[in-house]
UniProtKB/TrEMBL annotation, chain A:
Protein name: Succinate dehydrogenase, cytochrome b556 subunit
NCBIfam families: succ_dehyd_cytB
Low complexity bias locations: 1-20
Region (Disordered): 1-22
Length: 140, 148
């Protein structure tokens, strides 16, 4: 590395014809961070629309609210809540990663490491949440 | 060969004077995001992790929470920050996946309209909520109601 830093950069001898090369982020950690942030964001947004409407039923009557909330307590929806919390937790941690990459030069250089930190913290959080939630859904 | 513009290339240059709306949108996403992490993790912990979690949620549970201004303001703050954060995110997707024109305008109008309706609805629900509605079955009401 030290012998090449003083040389004027030149084009590679063989132009990359098959592989896009190393300058694109495509297929790497940054792309998956972006894709997952977008998908989880849209999913959370549409859940939020529904969640405001179902919660608004407390203003209609106790019976109406209890009927809709009973749907959230079924096994299928219980599994759906694991997916929802998983999406929220990823979006939250990856959002912090985005902020760090924006404002802190160390984080900009180490954005790939930070993606795996996000995945690791996500796994830990889901290990804390999922068993307890599923026990509530399936046993009470 | 197709030239791909730099991802940071703005669709149109920022205004020379006055408020740079896109810059404040960028700042809002980050500021609200950090606050939302605290608010939503707290919301999920209180509603899904404590006690019997989702199985304990019913009218009485919500009435018990909203008897306190603390949870009223928690939920209203969460509503406004999250809905505007989500709407701005959806605006980004509309800009990315549609071309300027009628379809894009209709989508943005639908987005703004639905968000405005839900903000008003949600805020009214939290602050006009009656935990002890007259004529309701006593066993569905929170324990602090005279009828319960």
């Amino acid at each position: 590395m030290s012998t090449t830093t003083t040389r004027t950069p030149t084009a590679p001898e063989k132009p990359a014809t098959e592989k896009p090369g190393g300058t694109l982020y495509r297929g790497r950690e940054g792309m998956w961070s972006w894709v997952l942030h977008r998908i989880t964001g849209v999913a959370i947004f549409f859940f939020l629309l529904v969640h405001i409407l179902d919660t608004s039923l407390v203003r209609v009557s106790p019976e109406a609210y209890n009927a809709v909330i009973a749907a959230y307590q079924t096994p299928i929806m219980g599994l759906g809540e694991v997916a929802l919390v998983g999406a929220i937790v990823f979006h939250a941690y990856n959002g912090i990663r985005v902020i760090l990459v924006d404002f802190w030069s160390w984080a900009t250089r180490n954005q790939k490491v930070l993606f795996y930190v996000v995945i690791g913290l996500w796994v830990l959080t889901m290990l804390a949440f999922t068993p307890r939630h599923l026990i509530n859904v399936f046993s009470h | 060969m197709t030239v791909i513009e730099s991802p940071r290339t703005p669709a149109r240059p920022a205004p020379r004077r006055g408020v740079n709306v896109e810059k404040w949108g960028w700042i809002y996403m980050r500021a609200s995001g950090v606050i939302l992490l605290v608010l939503i993790f707290g919301h999920l912990f209180a509603n899904l992790m404590v006690g019997e979690g989702v199985k304990a949620i019913d009218f009485g549970f919500v009435a018990g929470k909203w008897a306190s201004p603390f949870w009223q303001w928690w939920d209203v703050l969460m509503l406004w920050l999250a809905l505007i954060h989500g709407a701005n995110g959806m605006r980004t997707l509309i800009n990315d996946y549609t071309n300027p024109g009628t379809v894009q305008k209709v989508l943005k109008l639908a987005l703004v309209a639905s968000v405005a309706v839900l903000l008003v609805l949600g805020t009214l629900v939290v602050f006009t909520f009656d935990p002890c509605p007259a004529g309701s079955p006593a066993d569905l009401l929170p324990s602090f109601c005279p009828a319960a």
